[in-house]
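Hi F.,

I've been meaning to write this up properly since the lab meeting, where we talked about keeping a consistent format for the predictions we share between groups. The idea is simple: the sequence comes first, exactly as it goes in, then the structure tokens exactly as they come out, then a line or two of notes. No screenshots and no reformatting. I'm using this chain as the first example so we have something concrete to point to.
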Amino acid sequence: MAQPGGPLPPTGLSPRDPDNDGLEHLPHFRLPLALREVYAIHGGLDGAGGHNIDPPHRIHRHLSWIDKKDTYLLDRFHARNLGLLPDQFVAFAPDSFGNTYVFNLDCLDERHDPQVADWDHETWEVSKGVPFWPWFADFAPRSLLGLNEEHVASIADK
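Output, unedited:
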């Protein structure tokens, strides 16, 4: 239970059927195993820290609006991201400020899941990817539970 004035607990959606991933709108995209494991418990999470983990039907190719025919936008993206292509990223965890966590489809972890990177809407930069579970261990306390660094450190010390 949340304390008065403290962060609200995350809201979880109903678990998902692992055989029906709801990704018909993203052909050729396999839902990462780690995210399937989260969806087996929660079909998505709305967090107190401004971030969400979207349900499958809201996962999308976040950067698909960068039209490959618009050389200005494509050149800007290439310059900021060392030649990466916008369509190799699939968004699944947006915040309320315009940034989002994305799966980098060209950077896989040891389970062959795409790694998680952060898309910054102001700089147009995509961060270096990390495997899902280490990312989640950092993301969940701050972004879903709304805990600050001091809270996270005090929990880790116990």
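Notes:
Confidence is low (pLDDT under 50) at residues 1-14.
Residues 31-157 form one domain.

If this format works for you, I'll send the rest the same way.

G.
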